[in-house]
Amino acid sequence: MAEVIRMPLLSDTMTEGKIVKWNKQVGDKVKGDDVLAEVETDKATMEVVGYVDGTLLYIGVPEGKAAQVNEIIAIVGKEGEDFQGLLGGGTTTAASAPAVEEPVAAAPATGGGDAESIAKSLAVTVIRMPLLSDTMTEGKIVAWNKKVGDAVKADESLADVETDKATMEVVPYADGTLLYTGFEAGTAAKVNEVIAIIGKAGTDVSGLIEAIKNPSAPAASAPVASSEAPAAATSAPSGTTTESNSDNGRVKASPLAKKIAAEKGIDLKAIQGSGDGGRIIKADIDNYTPAVVTAPAATKPAATAAPVVAFTPGAGEGFVDTPNSSMRKTIARRLGESMFTAPHFYLKMEINMDNAMAARTQMNAVSPVKISFQDMMIKACAMALRKHPAVNSSWMGDFIRTYNHIHIGSAVAVDQGLIVPVFKFADQKSLSQIASEAGGLYEKARTGKLQPQEFSGNTFTISNLGMMDIEDFTAIINPPDSCILAVGRIKEIVVKKADGSFGTTNVMKVTLSADHRSVDGAVGASFLQTLKKYIENPVTMLV
């Protein structure tokens, strides 16, 4: 069955998107994760992914033209398939969705079958987990903003989804009633997995759900209940559960009780259950207090020395297992790949910060926003990259890509891990503009509201731990960058002056981590020398 690809809502203020480039042409084979087109929104140029396998049958908007949000821009299906009925014009095939005024056919109540054909016959829209970032493999449903039975509009937020970088909204792009949700809040779905179904109120989607869950199962009539089933059911004593077998040493406990006990490190064997048949329930875990262990009585020594009080642990041994968030999983995967794929080398340098500190004080006296040392580092790195373009590059396997634009990523620590807001065209912005932009980006990063265009596209990254009193450290390269700069704290030290006297000065240590495949040692060293000149003489960044 052919699938319609519509112009997605790629930003919260977007009303239309301009097709900058089609990466596929009519007749080309496409996969679910292929980028069909590059689209210019009101904020950035982003990629449109089709999420379906097949052949590109139709392109509705040519390059250079704009399409409204939710407008059909392409159709993907089987080669030679008739798709005219999906365009609202032309002839509609016999397999087209029934007219609204006709009664909606019920899906087969059997497993298996073609889910796409069933969805088409029911005139329902299947909502899949979208690809919300370039590194996303799954999304965690944080909250459903609609529940089954609610009316849904095409531009409403259906659910909040936690990706590897931020919490974002899933928009259905279809009007109707929410008939089914495939994942509970708090659980994760792989990209392209079915998370919801929207259609006409009252539509029976049980057969479609079964086909989605068991795509390889052949369609068959409902099995006839075996006459032995009731006997098997009645053979178990009344009130027993699957946890009730105590003869083989198993502890009777509810799944929730087991989970909480494991998190708290509590031995279930030490708890007396208050549920049916002695089954341990959540309340038993909550009310449990470890018994005080007393030392066995010992023979009183002949001497009259004061007795030693027996040691009693304040609490039993235990641990807490915290499920990894999507962000943490991606950090582990990407930085692991970076560390063990890219041959890192490190260059350390000490920078005198006396002039930078004085200049910052003077600039903040006239700047409309407060300029931080990180803002100064972003500007200095961007200007140094302009003079050393080889550092502003990516290793692409068969070639090295050197960027004409300079987008500086500034790593921010959040509860879930690390995210990198990106300052686009940082070399062209003033220090006040960078400082103003930083306030908004860092706040969005901490609250999980960064949009994809705000945390992607970096060509160089800065990681600053100076505010946490870290003197110097090395950082792992943030793909696809070739380099990352680790910035330590400003430290006051004693130095010997030219006249032989002693005084104090302020220094800061930086470490450049570089991918030796694309950046040579001498190139990295030259970059650091230029960066040092800008920071030690900040007026050079203003002319």
Describe the structure.
It is built from ten helices and 26 strands. α1 (115-122) runs antiparallel to α2, α8 packs across α9 (431-447) and α8 crosses α10 (521-536). It has a six-stranded mixed beta sheet with strand order 17-26-25-24-20-23, covered by helices on one side. It has a four-stranded antiparallel beta sheet with strand order 1-8-6-3, with no helix packed on it. Strands 5-4-2-7 form a four-stranded antiparallel beta sheet, with no helix packed on it. Among the domains are: 1-95, RNA polymerase II/Efflux pump adaptor protein, barrel-sandwich hybrid domain (OB fold (Dihydrolipoamide Acetyltransferase, E2P)), CATH 2.40.50.100; 326-541, Chloramphenicol acetyltransferase-like domain (Chloramphenicol Acetyltransferase, 2-Layer Sandwich), CATH 3.30.559.10. With 543 residues, the chain is of the alpha+beta class. β25 and β26 (502-515) form a beta hairpin. 31% of the residues are buried.
Give the arrangement of secondary structure elements.
Elements: E1 3-6, E2 16-22, E3 29-30, E4 35-40, E5 45-49, E6 54-59, E7 66-68, E8 72-77, H1 115-122, E9 125-128, E10 138-144, E11 151-152, E12 159-162, E13 167-170, E14 176-181, E15 188-190, E16 194-199, H2 206-213, H3 228-234, H4 255-264, H5 282-286, H6 326-341, E17 344-352, H7 354-366, H8 373-387, E18 393-395, E19 400-402, E20 408-410, E21 412-414, E22 417-419, E23 422-423, H9 431-447, E24 460-464, E25 483-496, E26 502-515, H10 521-536
Parallel strand pairs: 20-24, 24-25
Antiparallel strand pairs: 1-8, 2-4, 2-7, 3-6, 4-5, 6-8, 9-16, 10-12, 10-15, 11-14, 12-13, 14-16, 17-26, 18-19, 20-23, 21-22, 25-26
